Design the sequence.
């Protein structure tokens, strides 16, 4: 499966800049974790890129409609499973088992929270964000209220990481790809 095919499919079902940016962010965060942990970076990236394939057009069928849409590019079964597992306990009964699935589950909501926090900074960037600053935003339930703190906590627990570890690693991953995502968004 080629990344170009995945991007074409993503853009067929997602037009809002927010959703495209989120897809690129999760793609690159997943690639970062794959590199760090010694896994297939391309596969992890594709899972991150396509994880919300059905969310914009079919929010009431999130993770339910994804298998049908992913068939259009002959996505392998393990990719389909991983995509669907990120909604475990919310909109899917497919439990994240593989380390990659657990990371996707943990970072999906967290990347949204980190991006919202970065936009509030004078730099508008993750490059100078500290874990302590993110912890304050995490505790403020009104800030980025759509980002589920419970899902983030459960994600850290499933990985056997503390919240601070998850925050630090995900901030580093987002720093690593921030410029690349900005460039990709300009070229879209």
Sequence:
């Amino acid at each position: 499966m080629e990344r170009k095919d995945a991007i074409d499919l993503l853009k067929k079902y997602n037009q809002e800049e927010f959703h495209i940016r989120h897809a690129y962010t999760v793609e690159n965060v997943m690639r970062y974790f794959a590199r760090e942990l010694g896994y297939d970076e391309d596969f992890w990236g594709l899972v991150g890129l396509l994880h919300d394939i059905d969310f914009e057009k079919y929010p009431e069928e999130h993770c339910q409609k994804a298998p049908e849409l992913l068939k259009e590019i002959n996505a392998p079964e393990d990719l389909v499973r991983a995509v669907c597992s990120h909604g475990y306990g919310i909109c899917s009964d497919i439990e994240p088992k593989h380390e990659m699935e657990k990371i996707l589950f943990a970072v999906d909501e967290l990347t949204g929270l980190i991006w919202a926090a970065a936009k509030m900074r004078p730099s508008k960037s993750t490059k100078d964000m500290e874990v302590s600053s993110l912890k304050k935003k995490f505790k403020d339930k009104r800030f980025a209220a759509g980002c589920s703190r419970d899902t983030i906590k459960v994600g850290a627990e499933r990985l056997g990481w503390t919240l601070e570890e998850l925050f630090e690693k995900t901030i580093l991953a987002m720093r690593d790809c921030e410029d690349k995502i900005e460039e990709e968004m300009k070229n879209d």
